[in-house]
Design brief:
By secondary structure, this protein is an alpha/beta fold. Helices cover 38% and strands 13% of the residues. The protein contains twelve helices and twelve strands. Strands 2-8-7-6-5-3-4 form a seven-stranded mixed β-sheet, with helices on both faces. Strands 9-10-12 form a three-stranded antiparallel β-sheet, with helices on one face. α3 packs across α4. The structure holds pyridoxal-5'-phosphate (PLP). Pyridoxal-5'-phosphate binds next to α3.
């Protein structure tokens, strides 16, 4: 029995699922996680909260996740300069990872006969979620160095007339930011819903503003974020969205009832109470990212400046061979399918050193073979 023997939907025939390799190696730098574990004191609080939630686990959870929305609003209000804004709990939505948030958005605003516009190279899940919700994924080219100018964005919106636009800032896998001018121009160019995926915003410099600055008076603007990256909570699955409360009412039409388990709500709320501790590693990760940029440049690679916790580097003669060479040395990076490039996440200082050493080793071998 093969997948192709099954009567799956016509529009899913021949598609591939998300497939970042899951390989157990000493140095895992392939999916942009925070590689620091959650501090013991926060783990203790989470355990206590989980234990409290278990007392009522015979009941369905709070469908409106009120405590969690309050905690998320507090966190967003308190965040780094440039990334914060006064948001109310009513403007916060959440789901099992921001991937599920994006799925809710496309279930409500996309779907059959509708389209979502993206600017590749961008997050590989955007087209997959589009396909899964029956939304047509349409694309437009970026400017040089993966930038998107206001004029480029406006021209793309006018050409494709999409129902939804996805802008990713900082963008995965390039690390590039999208300016507020571009977001504003995109919004003004049509009546489309505009989503800014800010999964990596905590790693951006404090003077790189969040799209939150634009939220007031723009009911079609949505900002998605996640606890999976800076917040070191990828395993818990919690993503969220900030938008006009009416947008959240639209998402209520498509989410499954009680979609956030009592355990997820309790764990995330407890972790958010410690948000400054949870974010303590962000500065260190930014330093390692900047170190990667400096060292890779010195080694002769082309490196794109990154506002996130990873770096895309080019000039790799054979990315597949380099990927294998690094893997043989216990280091897992990501081949994102852009010619002659690889992407590496900034890890702890030790992990970053291990990657840089393995890479120069692989390089040396490659030169010997020539
Ligand atoms: C990692 C990532 C996410 C996070 O997804 P979760 O489902 O919240 O873990 C979202 N958007 C982008 C661009 C990402 O790289």
């Amino acid at each position: 029995m093969e997948l192709s023997d099954l009567p799956i939907r016509d529009d899913l025939q021949g598609k591939s699922p998300y497939g970042a390799p899951m390989i157990d190696v000493p140095v895992t730098l392939n999916v942009n996680e925070n590689t620091h574990s959650v501090p013991a004191e926060v783990r203790a609080s989470i355990l206590e909260a989980l234990s409290g939630a278990l007392e009522n686990i015979n009941r369905y959870p709070d469908r409106e996740f009120v405590a969690l929305r309050l905690a998320l609003a507090d966190y967003v209000n308190d965040g780094a300069k440039g990334h914060s804004a006064p948001v109310t709990p009513e403007s916060v939505w959440a789901a099992n990872g921001s991937n599920e948030v994006l799925q809710h958005v496309l279930q409500a605003f996309g779907g059959p006969g509708r389209s979502v516009l993206g600017f590749p190279p961008t997050y590989s899940m955007h087209p997959i979620i589009a396909e899964a919700t029956g939304t047509q994924w349409v694309t437009a080219a970026r400017d040089a160095d993966f930038e998107i100018s206001p004029a480029t964005a406006v021209a793309a919106v006018k050409e494709h007339q999409p129902d939804v636009v996805f802008l990713c800032s900082p963008n995965n896998p390039t690390g590039t930011g999208v300016s507020l001018e571009t977001i504003e121009a995109t919004y003004d160019a049509s009546d489309a819903m505009v989503l800014v995926d800010e999964a990596y915003i905590e790693f951006a410099p404090d003077d790189h503003p969040s799209a939150l600055r634009l939220l007031e008076g723009r009911p079609r603007l949505m900002i998605s974020r996640t606890m999976s990256k800076a917040f070191a909570f990828a395993g818990a699955r919690l993503g969220y969205l900030i938008a006009d409360p009416a947008v959240n009412d639209a998402l209520r039409l498509v989410r499954l009832p009680y979609h956030l388990s009592a355990l997820t709500q309790a764990a995330a709320t407890a972790a958010l109470a410690h948000h400054s501790t949870m974010l303590a590693t962000v500065e260190q990760i930014r330093e390692q990212r900047d170190r990667l940029v400096t060292e890779l440049t010195k080694m002769g690679y082309t490196v794109w400046p990154s506002l996130a916790n990873f770096v895309l580097f080019g000039g790799v003669v054979d990315p597949h061979a380099t990927f294998r060479g690094l893997l043989e040395r216990g280091v897992l990076v990501r081949d994102v399918g852009i010619e002659h490039t690889l992407r590496v996440s900034a890890g702890t200082p030790e992990e970053t050193s291990a990657f840089l050493e393995a890479l120069s080793d692989v390089d040396a071998l490659a030169r010997l073979e020539k």
